[in-house]
Amino acid sequence: MCVAKCVIIAFALSISVVSSWDIAITTGDQLEFYTNKTKEKDEVGRFRDLTALAHDAVHNLLLFVDKQGDNASIFSYNLATKKSQPLVGRRSHESIQGLAFDPVSGKIFWPDTEDKIIYWTSLWSRSKTDIYGKVLLNMTHEIPRDIAVDSCRGYIYWTNINVTKPTIERARLDGTGREVIIDKDIYMPVSIAVDQRTKSLYWVDDKEGIHYTIETSDLDGGNRRKVVVGIHHHPNTLTVSKDSLYWVDWAYKTVWKIDKDAPPYTEPEEFLTFSNGNIKPFGIVANYNIKDQIEGIPECKTVWEMQKNKMNETFDIPTDSTFDVGLFCLHGEGSGNKCECIQGYTGDRCEISVCQNFCLNGECKVGSEGPTCRCKKGYAGLRCEKNVCNGFCLNSGECSINSDKPACKCPDNFEGGRCERKKLEVATTMAPVKDICNCTNNANSSPGHPVRNSQTSDSPLVTTTETLLVGDDFVESCAGWDGVRDPILMALGVLCGLLSLLCAILITKVLQLKRRPRIKKRIIVNKNVTPLTARPDQCEITIENCCNMNICETPCFEPKSTIRPNLLNTKQGKEEKRNLIANMENPDDMY
Question: Which runs of consecutive H residues, i.e. helices, occur in 101-189?
Protein backbone atom coordinates (compact mmCIF):
# COMPACT_ATOMS: atom_id res chain seq x y z
CA MET A 1 0.00 0.00 0.00
CA CYS A 2 2.85 2.33 0.85
CA VAL A 3 4.52 1.59 -2.47
CA ALA A 4 1.32 2.42 -4.34
CA LYS A 5 1.04 5.76 -2.51
CA CYS A 6 4.64 6.59 -3.37
CA VAL A 7 4.00 5.83 -7.00
CA ILE A 8 0.90 8.05 -6.91
CA ILE A 9 2.82 10.93 -5.34
CA ALA A 10 5.68 10.58 -7.79
CA PHE A 11 3.33 10.58 -10.74
CA ALA A 12 1.44 13.61 -9.43
CA LEU A 13 4.72 15.47 -9.10
CA SER A 14 5.67 14.52 -12.64
CA ILE A 15 2.32 15.79 -13.91
CA SER A 16 2.82 19.12 -12.15
CA VAL A 17 6.29 19.47 -13.60
CA VAL A 18 5.02 18.61 -17.06
CA SER A 19 2.25 21.22 -16.80
CA SER A 20 4.56 24.01 -15.66
CA TRP A 21 5.40 25.42 -19.10
CA ASP A 22 3.59 28.28 -20.85
CA ILE A 23 4.40 27.74 -24.52
CA ALA A 24 6.24 25.15 -26.60
CA ILE A 25 8.05 25.96 -29.84
CA THR A 26 9.64 23.93 -32.61
CA THR A 27 12.90 25.41 -33.86
CA GLY A 28 15.37 23.52 -36.01
CA ASP A 29 15.79 20.03 -34.53
CA GLN A 30 14.60 21.02 -31.04
CA LEU A 31 11.34 21.13 -29.14
CA GLU A 32 11.66 23.94 -26.59
CA PHE A 33 9.51 24.80 -23.53
CA TYR A 34 9.28 28.30 -22.01
CA THR A 35 7.86 29.73 -18.80
CA ASN A 36 7.81 33.51 -18.20
CA LYS A 37 10.18 34.08 -21.12
CA THR A 38 12.66 31.57 -19.72
CA LYS A 39 13.55 28.31 -21.37
CA GLU A 40 12.68 25.47 -19.05
CA LYS A 41 14.03 22.62 -21.13
CA ASP A 42 14.39 21.36 -24.64
CA GLU A 43 14.00 17.94 -26.14
CA VAL A 44 16.36 16.79 -28.86
CA GLY A 45 15.77 13.42 -30.42
CA ARG A 46 16.64 11.92 -33.75
CA PHE A 47 14.99 14.84 -35.53
CA ARG A 48 16.25 17.26 -38.15
CA ASP A 49 13.79 20.01 -39.09
CA LEU A 50 10.65 20.36 -36.93
CA THR A 51 7.77 22.45 -38.26
CA ALA A 52 4.06 22.21 -37.40
CA LEU A 53 3.05 21.60 -33.77
CA ALA A 54 -0.21 20.60 -32.01
CA HIS A 55 -1.19 19.99 -28.37
CA ASP A 56 -3.54 17.33 -27.00
CA ALA A 57 -4.38 18.64 -23.55
CA VAL A 58 -6.55 15.62 -22.75
CA HIS A 59 -3.86 12.97 -23.17
CA ASN A 60 -0.92 15.25 -22.38
CA LEU A 61 0.67 14.79 -25.81
CA LEU A 62 2.42 16.98 -28.32
CA LEU A 63 2.28 16.14 -32.02
CA PHE A 64 4.78 17.63 -34.45
CA VAL A 65 6.10 17.33 -37.98
CA ASP A 66 9.70 16.57 -38.98
CA LYS A 67 9.88 17.47 -42.67
CA GLN A 68 13.26 15.76 -43.06
CA GLY A 69 12.37 12.55 -41.27
CA ASP A 70 13.68 9.36 -42.77
CA ASN A 71 10.39 7.57 -43.32
CA ALA A 72 7.94 9.21 -40.91
CA SER A 73 6.75 12.79 -40.96
CA ILE A 74 4.37 13.12 -37.96
CA PHE A 75 5.50 12.14 -34.47
CA SER A 76 4.08 12.21 -30.94
CA TYR A 77 5.81 13.28 -27.75
CA ASN A 78 4.48 12.13 -24.40
CA LEU A 79 5.03 14.91 -21.88
CA ALA A 80 4.94 12.48 -18.96
CA THR A 81 7.23 9.73 -20.24
CA LYS A 82 9.28 12.04 -22.50
CA LYS A 83 9.18 9.47 -25.26
CA SER A 84 8.55 10.13 -28.93
CA GLN A 85 7.42 7.78 -31.63
CA PRO A 86 6.43 7.96 -35.30
CA LEU A 87 2.75 8.14 -36.18
CA VAL A 88 2.42 8.81 -39.91
CA GLY A 89 4.64 7.65 -42.75
CA ARG A 90 6.36 10.21 -44.90
CA ARG A 91 5.14 10.87 -48.43
CA SER A 92 7.37 12.11 -51.19
CA HIS A 93 7.14 15.82 -52.03
CA GLU A 94 4.81 16.63 -49.15
CA SER A 95 4.56 20.03 -47.47
CA ILE A 96 2.85 19.98 -44.03
CA GLN A 97 2.62 23.37 -42.30
CA GLY A 98 -0.40 22.78 -40.06
CA LEU A 99 -1.49 20.02 -37.67
CA ALA A 100 -4.51 19.37 -35.42
CA PHE A 101 -5.75 16.55 -33.17
CA ASP A 102 -9.24 15.65 -31.97
CA PRO A 103 -9.05 13.77 -28.65
CA VAL A 104 -12.67 12.58 -28.89
CA SER A 105 -12.32 10.66 -32.17
CA GLY A 106 -8.58 10.12 -31.88
CA LYS A 107 -8.01 11.59 -35.34
CA ILE A 108 -5.06 13.62 -36.63
CA PHE A 109 -5.75 16.15 -39.39
CA TRP A 110 -3.13 17.82 -41.56
CA PRO A 111 -3.22 19.79 -44.85
CA ASP A 112 -0.67 19.24 -47.61
CA THR A 113 -0.10 22.48 -49.53
CA GLU A 114 1.75 20.60 -52.25
CA ASP A 115 -1.03 18.12 -53.05
CA LYS A 116 -3.88 20.53 -52.05
CA ILE A 117 -5.35 17.77 -49.87
CA ILE A 118 -6.44 17.51 -46.23
CA TYR A 119 -5.49 14.09 -44.79
CA TRP A 120 -6.52 12.31 -41.63
CA THR A 121 -5.65 9.16 -39.72
CA SER A 122 -6.88 7.55 -36.50
CA LEU A 123 -4.66 6.64 -33.58
CA TRP A 124 -7.13 4.19 -32.05
CA SER A 125 -7.09 1.23 -34.36
CA ARG A 126 -5.64 1.00 -37.83
CA SER A 127 -3.76 -1.28 -40.14
CA LYS A 128 -0.34 -0.84 -41.71
CA THR A 129 -2.01 0.39 -44.86
CA ASP A 130 -3.19 3.50 -42.97
CA ILE A 131 0.24 4.72 -41.96
CA TYR A 132 0.27 7.38 -44.72
CA GLY A 133 -3.19 8.71 -43.87
CA LYS A 134 -6.44 8.93 -45.82
CA VAL A 135 -7.86 11.73 -47.96
CA LEU A 136 -10.52 13.81 -46.23
CA LEU A 137 -10.90 16.69 -48.71
CA ASN A 138 -9.33 16.94 -52.15
CA MET A 139 -9.20 20.48 -53.50
CA THR A 140 -8.70 21.89 -56.98
CA HIS A 141 -8.02 25.61 -56.65
CA GLU A 142 -7.69 26.09 -52.88
CA ILE A 143 -4.32 25.77 -51.13
CA PRO A 144 -4.87 24.65 -47.50
CA ARG A 145 -2.12 25.74 -45.10
CA ASP A 146 -3.17 25.61 -41.41
CA ILE A 147 -5.89 23.69 -39.62
CA ALA A 148 -7.64 23.74 -36.20
CA VAL A 149 -10.19 21.49 -34.46
CA ASP A 150 -13.26 22.35 -32.42
CA SER A 151 -13.72 19.07 -30.52
CA CYS A 152 -16.78 20.29 -28.63
CA ARG A 153 -18.86 20.94 -31.76
CA GLY A 154 -17.17 18.51 -34.16
CA TYR A 155 -15.72 20.93 -36.75
CA ILE A 156 -12.39 21.41 -38.44
CA TYR A 157 -11.35 24.89 -39.67
CA TRP A 158 -8.65 25.58 -42.24
CA THR A 159 -7.13 28.50 -44.16
CA ASN A 160 -6.85 28.75 -47.94
CA ILE A 161 -3.84 30.89 -49.02
CA ASN A 162 -4.61 31.06 -52.74
CA VAL A 163 -4.27 34.85 -53.11
CA THR A 164 -6.59 34.91 -56.13
CA LYS A 165 -9.45 33.80 -53.87
CA PRO A 166 -8.38 33.34 -50.23
CA THR A 167 -10.88 31.92 -47.75
CA ILE A 168 -11.38 30.48 -44.29
CA GLU A 169 -13.56 27.35 -44.40
CA ARG A 170 -14.91 24.65 -42.14
CA ALA A 171 -16.37 21.14 -42.36
CA ARG A 172 -17.44 18.28 -40.15
CA LEU A 173 -14.83 15.84 -38.87
CA ASP A 174 -15.87 13.37 -41.57
CA GLY A 175 -15.50 15.99 -44.35
CA THR A 176 -19.19 16.70 -44.84
CA GLY A 177 -20.91 20.06 -44.55
CA ARG A 178 -18.07 22.05 -46.07
CA GLU A 179 -18.70 25.82 -46.13
CA VAL A 180 -16.86 29.12 -46.54
CA ILE A 181 -17.18 31.39 -43.52
CA ILE A 182 -14.70 34.21 -44.40
CA ASP A 183 -13.97 35.39 -47.95
CA LYS A 184 -14.07 39.21 -47.73
CA ASP A 185 -11.23 41.62 -46.92
CA ILE A 186 -8.68 38.82 -46.62
CA TYR A 187 -5.40 38.25 -48.48
CA MET A 188 -3.30 35.36 -47.10
CA PRO A 189 -4.55 33.73 -43.87
CA VAL A 190 -1.46 31.78 -42.81
CA SER A 191 -2.58 30.42 -39.43
CA ILE A 192 -5.78 29.77 -37.45
CA ALA A 193 -6.71 28.81 -33.88
CA VAL A 194 -9.95 27.95 -32.04
CA ASP A 195 -10.85 29.11 -28.53
CA GLN A 196 -13.54 26.64 -27.41
CA ARG A 197 -14.39 28.58 -24.24
CA THR A 198 -15.18 31.88 -25.96
CA LYS A 199 -16.47 30.18 -29.13
CA SER A 200 -14.08 32.30 -31.17
CA LEU A 201 -11.82 31.95 -34.17
CA TYR A 202 -8.46 33.74 -34.39
CA TRP A 203 -6.38 34.00 -37.54
CA VAL A 204 -3.34 35.83 -38.89
CA ASP A 205 -3.65 37.54 -42.27
CA ASP A 206 -0.33 38.36 -43.95
CA LYS A 207 -1.55 41.29 -46.01
CA GLU A 208 -0.05 42.40 -49.30
CA GLY A 209 3.09 44.47 -48.85
CA ILE A 210 4.34 45.23 -45.33
CA HIS A 211 1.01 45.00 -43.48
CA TYR A 212 -0.48 42.22 -41.38
CA THR A 213 -3.51 41.78 -39.13
CA ILE A 214 -4.70 39.42 -36.39
CA GLU A 215 -8.48 39.11 -36.46
CA THR A 216 -11.22 37.28 -34.58
CA SER A 217 -14.81 36.25 -35.21
CA ASP A 218 -17.49 33.86 -34.05
CA LEU A 219 -17.23 30.23 -35.10
CA ASP A 220 -19.55 30.92 -38.03
CA GLY A 221 -17.61 34.02 -39.22
CA GLY A 222 -19.86 36.62 -37.60
CA ASN A 223 -18.91 39.54 -35.31
CA ARG A 224 -15.59 39.97 -37.03
CA ARG A 225 -13.06 42.45 -35.60
CA LYS A 226 -9.34 43.23 -35.72
CA VAL A 227 -7.16 42.57 -32.69
CA VAL A 228 -3.79 43.70 -34.09
CA VAL A 229 -2.96 45.87 -37.11
CA GLY A 230 0.75 46.18 -37.79
CA ILE A 231 3.55 46.40 -40.32
CA HIS A 232 6.92 44.81 -41.04
CA HIS A 233 6.01 41.44 -39.52
CA HIS A 234 6.06 38.12 -41.33
CA PRO A 235 3.66 36.05 -39.20
CA ASN A 236 3.77 32.28 -39.54
CA THR A 237 1.85 30.48 -36.79
CA LEU A 238 -0.65 31.49 -34.09
CA THR A 239 -1.81 29.94 -30.81
CA VAL A 240 -4.30 30.93 -28.12
CA SER A 241 -4.15 30.52 -24.34
CA LYS A 242 -6.61 31.37 -21.59
CA ASP A 243 -5.80 35.07 -21.65
CA SER A 244 -3.35 35.78 -24.49
CA LEU A 245 -2.45 35.29 -28.13
CA TYR A 246 1.04 34.28 -29.26
CA TRP A 247 2.42 34.28 -32.78
CA VAL A 248 5.73 33.55 -34.49
CA ASP A 249 7.22 36.33 -36.60
CA TRP A 250 9.82 35.27 -39.17
CA ALA A 251 10.86 38.84 -40.01
CA TYR A 252 12.41 39.42 -36.55
CA LYS A 253 12.65 35.75 -35.48
CA THR A 254 10.51 36.72 -32.54
CA VAL A 255 7.48 35.45 -30.62
CA TRP A 256 4.97 38.22 -29.88
CA LYS A 257 2.23 38.31 -27.25
CA ILE A 258 -0.95 40.33 -26.75
CA ASP A 259 -3.98 40.03 -24.49
CA LYS A 260 -7.11 38.67 -26.14
CA ASP A 261 -9.16 41.54 -24.77
CA ALA A 262 -6.60 44.27 -25.44
CA PRO A 263 -8.08 47.64 -26.50
CA PRO A 264 -7.62 48.79 -30.10
CA TYR A 265 -4.17 50.01 -31.20
CA THR A 266 -2.41 48.18 -28.36
CA GLU A 267 1.19 47.40 -29.22
CA PRO A 268 2.13 43.70 -28.90
CA GLU A 269 4.74 42.58 -26.39
CA GLU A 270 8.02 41.02 -27.53
CA PHE A 271 7.94 37.70 -25.69
CA LEU A 272 10.96 35.82 -27.13
CA THR A 273 13.72 36.55 -29.63
CA PHE A 274 15.91 33.94 -31.29
CA SER A 275 19.43 35.21 -31.91
CA ASN A 276 20.72 32.21 -33.85
CA GLY A 277 20.82 33.44 -37.43
CA ASN A 278 20.65 29.97 -38.97
CA ILE A 279 17.55 28.76 -37.10
CA LYS A 280 14.11 30.32 -36.93
CA PRO A 281 11.05 29.18 -34.94
CA PHE A 282 8.15 27.57 -36.75
CA GLY A 283 5.36 25.92 -34.72
CA ILE A 284 3.95 27.21 -31.43
CA VAL A 285 1.33 25.95 -28.92
CA ALA A 286 0.17 27.35 -25.59
CA ASN A 287 -0.40 25.24 -22.49
CA TYR A 288 -4.16 25.86 -22.43
CA ASN A 289 -5.48 23.68 -19.62
CA ILE A 290 -8.37 21.54 -20.82
CA LYS A 291 -10.39 22.37 -17.72
CA ASP A 292 -10.11 26.08 -18.48
CA GLN A 293 -11.23 25.44 -22.03
CA ILE A 294 -14.33 23.31 -21.59
CA GLU A 295 -15.60 23.38 -17.99
CA GLY A 296 -19.25 24.40 -17.83
CA ILE A 297 -19.78 24.49 -21.61
CA PRO A 298 -22.73 22.30 -22.72
CA GLU A 299 -21.29 21.53 -26.14
CA CYS A 300 -18.10 20.21 -24.53
CA LYS A 301 -19.84 17.59 -22.40
CA THR A 302 -18.25 14.67 -24.21
CA VAL A 303 -14.77 16.12 -23.88
CA TRP A 304 -15.43 16.93 -20.23
CA GLU A 305 -16.54 13.37 -19.50
CA MET A 306 -13.42 12.06 -21.22
CA GLN A 307 -11.30 14.41 -19.15
CA LYS A 308 -13.00 13.27 -15.92
CA ASN A 309 -12.39 9.66 -16.83
CA LYS A 310 -8.77 10.40 -17.48
CA MET A 311 -8.54 12.13 -14.10
CA ASN A 312 -10.11 9.17 -12.36
CA GLU A 313 -7.78 6.86 -14.24
CA THR A 314 -4.80 9.11 -13.86
CA PHE A 315 -2.43 6.29 -13.20
CA ASP A 316 -3.49 4.40 -16.32
CA ILE A 317 -1.18 6.50 -18.47
CA PRO A 318 -1.99 6.08 -22.16
CA THR A 319 0.51 3.65 -23.59
CA ASP A 320 1.27 2.45 -27.05
CA SER A 321 -0.95 -0.57 -26.52
CA THR A 322 -3.83 1.68 -25.42
CA PHE A 323 -3.56 4.04 -28.37
CA ASP A 324 -2.00 1.64 -30.85
CA VAL A 325 0.20 4.62 -31.58
CA GLY A 326 2.77 3.84 -34.25
CA LEU A 327 3.08 0.15 -33.44
CA PHE A 328 4.52 -0.79 -36.80
CA CYS A 329 7.93 -1.47 -38.29
CA LEU A 330 8.43 0.93 -41.16
CA HIS A 331 11.01 -1.23 -42.96
CA GLY A 332 11.00 -4.65 -41.44
CA GLU A 333 8.97 -7.27 -39.67
CA GLY A 334 7.87 -7.27 -36.05
CA SER A 335 9.16 -9.95 -33.76
CA GLY A 336 7.60 -9.56 -30.34
CA ASN A 337 8.39 -6.05 -29.18
CA LYS A 338 11.24 -5.58 -31.63
CA CYS A 339 11.62 -4.92 -35.34
CA GLU A 340 13.85 -6.93 -37.62
CA CYS A 341 14.96 -4.38 -40.21
CA ILE A 342 15.65 -5.09 -43.85
CA GLN A 343 19.01 -4.23 -45.38
CA GLY A 344 19.72 -0.49 -45.37
CA TYR A 345 17.60 0.45 -42.33
CA THR A 346 18.11 0.65 -38.59
CA GLY A 347 16.40 2.07 -35.49
CA ASP A 348 13.84 0.78 -33.03
CA ARG A 349 11.16 0.81 -35.74
CA CYS A 350 13.48 0.57 -38.74
CA GLU A 351 12.87 4.25 -39.34
CA ILE A 352 16.48 5.29 -39.98
CA SER A 353 17.90 4.75 -43.44
CA VAL A 354 21.65 4.31 -43.72
CA CYS A 355 21.35 6.33 -46.94
CA GLN A 356 19.89 9.33 -45.11
CA ASN A 357 22.07 12.34 -45.98
CA PHE A 358 24.83 10.03 -47.21
CA CYS A 359 24.74 11.10 -50.86
CA LEU A 360 24.71 14.88 -50.93
CA ASN A 361 23.89 15.22 -54.63
CA GLY A 362 22.95 11.81 -55.90
CA GLU A 363 21.05 8.60 -55.41
CA CYS A 364 22.05 6.18 -52.69
CA LYS A 365 22.00 2.43 -53.05
CA VAL A 366 22.74 -0.13 -50.38
CA GLY A 367 24.85 -3.13 -51.28
CA SER A 368 26.90 -5.73 -49.48
CA GLU A 369 29.63 -3.15 -48.87
CA GLY A 370 27.28 -0.51 -47.54
CA PRO A 371 25.77 2.62 -49.11
CA THR A 372 27.10 3.84 -52.46
CA CYS A 373 26.25 6.93 -54.47
CA ARG A 374 25.26 7.52 -58.05
CA CYS A 375 25.93 11.21 -58.54
CA LYS A 376 23.74 13.66 -60.35
CA LYS A 377 24.94 15.36 -63.49
CA GLY A 378 27.70 17.78 -62.60
CA TYR A 379 28.76 16.20 -59.30
CA ALA A 380 31.49 13.77 -58.34
CA GLY A 381 33.12 12.27 -55.25
CA LEU A 382 32.45 9.40 -52.88
CA ARG A 383 29.36 11.16 -51.54
CA CYS A 384 28.74 13.37 -54.60
CA GLU A 385 30.05 16.30 -52.61
CA LYS A 386 32.13 17.88 -55.39
CA ASN A 387 30.63 20.20 -57.97
CA VAL A 388 32.71 19.73 -61.12
CA CYS A 389 31.87 23.27 -62.21
CA ASN A 390 33.14 24.82 -58.99
CA GLY A 391 36.12 26.98 -60.00
CA PHE A 392 36.41 25.39 -63.44
CA CYS A 393 35.58 28.40 -65.64
CA LEU A 394 37.83 31.40 -65.13
CA ASN A 395 37.19 35.09 -65.78
CA SER A 396 33.44 34.95 -65.05
CA GLY A 397 32.76 32.18 -67.55
CA GLU A 398 29.52 30.20 -67.32
CA CYS A 399 29.92 26.49 -66.70
CA SER A 400 27.60 23.82 -68.02
CA ILE A 401 27.75 20.06 -68.24
CA ASN A 402 28.14 18.59 -71.70
CA SER A 403 28.50 14.81 -72.07
CA ASP A 404 29.21 14.51 -68.32
CA LYS A 405 32.08 16.99 -68.64
CA PRO A 406 32.24 20.67 -67.72
CA ALA A 407 32.22 23.18 -70.57
CA CYS A 408 32.63 26.94 -70.38
CA LYS A 409 30.80 29.76 -72.12
CA CYS A 410 33.30 32.60 -72.07
CA PRO A 411 32.70 36.35 -71.99
CA ASP A 412 33.29 38.28 -75.20
CA ASN A 413 36.86 39.25 -74.35
CA PHE A 414 38.10 35.79 -73.23
CA GLU A 415 38.55 32.44 -74.90
CA GLY A 416 39.93 28.98 -74.26
CA GLY A 417 38.63 25.76 -72.77
CA ARG A 418 38.41 27.42 -69.34
CA CYS A 419 38.25 31.07 -70.51
CA GLU A 420 41.85 31.44 -69.43
CA ARG A 421 43.12 33.48 -72.39
CA LYS A 422 42.28 37.06 -73.22
CA LYS A 423 40.96 37.41 -76.75
CA LEU A 424 43.30 39.21 -79.16
CA GLU A 425 42.23 42.26 -81.14
CA VAL A 426 41.00 41.29 -84.58
CA ALA A 427 41.65 43.61 -87.58
CA THR A 428 39.71 43.39 -90.82
CA THR A 429 40.22 45.39 -94.02
CA MET A 430 37.71 46.63 -96.53
CA ALA A 431 38.94 47.96 -99.92
CA PRO A 432 36.38 50.08 -101.76
CA VAL A 433 37.47 50.68 -105.34
CA LYS A 434 36.18 54.20 -105.98
CA ASP A 435 34.96 55.58 -102.67
CA ILE A 436 37.30 57.95 -100.93
CA CYS A 437 37.46 57.51 -97.17
CA ASN A 438 36.49 60.52 -95.10
CA CYS A 439 37.66 60.16 -91.53
CA THR A 440 35.85 63.22 -90.22
CA ASN A 441 32.93 62.82 -87.85
CA ASN A 442 29.50 62.99 -89.40
CA ALA A 443 26.29 63.19 -87.45
CA ASN A 444 24.49 61.17 -90.10
CA SER A 445 26.86 58.26 -89.81
CA SER A 446 26.12 55.40 -87.52
CA PRO A 447 28.67 54.15 -85.00
CA GLY A 448 30.86 51.38 -86.26
CA HIS A 449 30.64 52.41 -89.95
CA PRO A 450 33.10 54.52 -92.00
CA VAL A 451 31.97 57.87 -93.48
CA ARG A 452 32.63 58.27 -97.19
CA ASN A 453 32.45 61.20 -99.62
CA SER A 454 29.81 61.19 -102.29
CA GLN A 455 32.44 61.99 -104.94
CA THR A 456 34.09 59.20 -106.86
CA SER A 457 37.63 59.05 -108.11
CA ASP A 458 39.04 57.61 -111.26
CA SER A 459 42.38 57.08 -109.64
CA PRO A 460 43.52 53.47 -109.63
CA LEU A 461 44.64 53.93 -106.04
CA VAL A 462 42.49 52.13 -103.49
CA THR A 463 41.75 53.63 -100.10
CA THR A 464 41.48 51.00 -97.38
CA THR A 465 39.60 51.09 -94.15
CA GLU A 466 40.73 49.09 -91.12
CA THR A 467 38.27 47.90 -88.54
CA LEU A 468 39.73 47.08 -85.12
CA LEU A 469 37.72 44.88 -82.77
CA VAL A 470 38.29 45.89 -79.19
CA GLY A 471 35.92 44.07 -76.84
CA ASP A 472 32.43 44.85 -78.14
CA ASP A 473 33.35 48.15 -79.89
CA PHE A 474 34.22 48.58 -83.52
CA VAL A 475 36.77 51.36 -84.15
CA GLU A 476 37.02 52.61 -87.71
CA SER A 477 40.25 54.08 -89.10
CA CYS A 478 41.21 54.98 -92.66
CA ALA A 479 44.34 55.95 -94.68
CA GLY A 480 43.19 59.48 -95.70
CA TRP A 481 44.54 62.91 -94.70
CA ASP A 482 44.58 63.78 -91.02
CA GLY A 483 44.71 67.53 -90.42
CA VAL A 484 46.61 67.20 -87.15
CA ARG A 485 48.65 64.06 -87.44
CA ASP A 486 49.89 64.28 -91.04
CA PRO A 487 51.42 67.83 -90.90
CA ILE A 488 53.36 66.85 -87.81
CA LEU A 489 54.63 63.73 -89.51
CA MET A 490 55.64 65.71 -92.61
CA ALA A 491 57.52 68.32 -90.55
CA LEU A 492 59.34 65.61 -88.70
CA GLY A 493 60.25 63.95 -92.01
CA VAL A 494 61.65 67.17 -93.51
CA LEU A 495 63.64 67.87 -90.37
CA CYS A 496 65.10 64.40 -90.42
CA GLY A 497 66.07 64.84 -94.09
CA LEU A 498 67.86 68.15 -93.46
CA LEU A 499 69.71 66.72 -90.52
CA SER A 500 70.81 63.76 -92.63
CA LEU A 501 72.07 66.07 -95.40
CA LEU A 502 74.00 68.19 -92.92
CA CYS A 503 75.58 65.10 -91.44
CA ALA A 504 76.68 63.96 -94.92
CA ILE A 505 78.32 67.34 -95.67
CA LEU A 506 80.18 67.39 -92.40
CA ILE A 507 81.46 63.86 -92.94
CA THR A 508 82.75 64.79 -96.42
CA LYS A 509 84.64 67.83 -95.09
CA VAL A 510 86.21 65.81 -92.33
CA LEU A 511 87.46 63.22 -94.82
CA GLN A 512 88.92 65.92 -97.09
CA LEU A 513 90.78 67.55 -94.24
CA LYS A 514 92.27 64.21 -93.30
CA ARG A 515 93.74 63.80 -96.85
CA ARG A 516 95.70 67.14 -96.91
CA PRO A 517 99.49 66.60 -96.41
CA ARG A 518 100.91 67.95 -93.24
CA ILE A 519 104.66 68.84 -93.62
CA LYS A 520 106.51 68.66 -90.44
CA LYS A 521 109.97 69.90 -91.72
CA ARG A 522 112.40 72.62 -90.71
CA ILE A 523 113.91 74.77 -93.57
CA ILE A 524 116.94 76.94 -92.83
CA VAL A 525 117.92 79.60 -95.44
CA ASN A 526 121.24 81.41 -94.94
CA LYS A 527 122.45 83.95 -97.55
CA ASN A 528 125.74 84.60 -95.82
CA VAL A 529 127.36 81.20 -96.16
CA THR A 530 130.19 80.49 -98.46
CA PRO A 531 128.89 79.78 -101.96
CA LEU A 532 129.64 76.32 -103.26
CA THR A 533 129.43 77.30 -106.90
CA ALA A 534 130.93 79.93 -109.15
CA ARG A 535 127.84 82.00 -108.84
CA PRO A 536 128.41 84.41 -106.02
CA ASP A 537 125.03 86.10 -106.38
CA GLN A 538 123.12 82.88 -105.91
CA CYS A 539 122.05 82.04 -102.45
CA GLU A 540 122.98 78.95 -100.68
CA ILE A 541 120.13 76.84 -99.44
CA THR A 542 120.61 74.41 -96.65
CA ILE A 543 117.77 71.94 -96.57
CA GLU A 544 117.25 69.31 -93.98
CA ASN A 545 115.69 66.18 -95.10
CA CYS A 546 115.89 67.31 -98.70
CA CYS A 547 115.10 63.87 -99.97
CA ASN A 548 111.61 64.17 -98.64
CA MET A 549 110.86 67.32 -100.63
CA ASN A 550 109.50 67.45 -104.16
CA ILE A 551 110.13 70.23 -106.59
CA CYS A 552 107.07 72.14 -105.55
CA GLU A 553 108.00 72.06 -101.89
CA THR A 554 111.65 73.26 -102.34
CA PRO A 555 111.99 76.96 -101.39
CA CYS A 556 113.86 79.06 -103.94
CA PHE A 557 115.08 82.63 -104.12
CA GLU A 558 115.49 84.32 -107.45
CA PRO A 559 118.49 86.70 -107.71
CA LYS A 560 117.57 90.24 -108.41
CA SER A 561 119.86 90.21 -111.41
CA THR A 562 117.63 87.75 -113.13
CA ILE A 563 114.45 89.68 -112.50
CA ARG A 564 113.21 91.96 -115.18
CA PRO A 565 113.39 95.58 -114.24
CA ASN A 566 109.71 96.06 -114.85
CA LEU A 567 108.91 93.48 -112.25
CA LEU A 568 110.95 94.97 -109.47
CA ASN A 569 108.49 97.73 -108.79
CA THR A 570 105.41 95.55 -109.12
CA LYS A 571 103.68 93.93 -106.26
CA GLN A 572 104.28 90.35 -105.64
CA GLY A 573 101.39 88.50 -107.05
CA LYS A 574 100.40 86.26 -109.84
CA GLU A 575 103.09 87.65 -112.20
CA GLU A 576 105.88 86.80 -109.80
CA LYS A 577 104.56 83.33 -109.31
CA ARG A 578 104.30 82.78 -113.05
CA ASN A 579 107.90 83.89 -113.51
CA LEU A 580 109.13 81.56 -110.86
CA ILE A 581 107.38 78.62 -112.47
CA ALA A 582 108.85 79.49 -115.88
CA ASN A 583 112.36 79.56 -114.46
CA MET A 584 111.82 76.20 -112.91
CA GLU A 585 110.73 74.66 -116.14
CA ASN A 586 113.88 76.05 -117.95
CA PRO A 587 116.61 76.04 -115.35
CA ASP A 588 120.03 77.52 -116.01
CA ASP A 589 122.93 75.18 -116.13
CA MET A 590 124.51 75.65 -112.77
CA TYR A 591 127.56 73.62 -113.55
Answer: none
